[in-house]
Design a protein that fits this description.
Layout: H1 4-17, H2 21-41, H3 52-65
Helix pairs in contact: 1-2
């Protein structure tokens, strides 16, 4: 779902970069997807609060050790 904030950002982007609204919205949506992926794959500093991917890897490692 596209928010009002995204529409406003797309309007500004389309004006500044002289692109269509559709292109601007596409860029903003892709940027949001990239942010989600970065958060999903980020590595944490400690084992007490691992990222989702690290937690899965740790569980797999424990199963293989058995």
């Amino acid at each position: 779902m596209i928010t009002g904030k995204q529409i406003n950002e797309a309007k500004e982007l389309s004006k500044e970069c002289k692109i269509t609204m559709a292109e601007a919205l596409g860029i903003l949506i892709q940027d949001e997807r990239n942010e989600i992926l970065k958060r999903a794959f980020v590595l944490s500093d400690s084992d007490s609060h691992p990222s989702a991917l690290e937690a899965i890897a740790m569980q797999l490692g424990e199963k293989e050790a058995r």
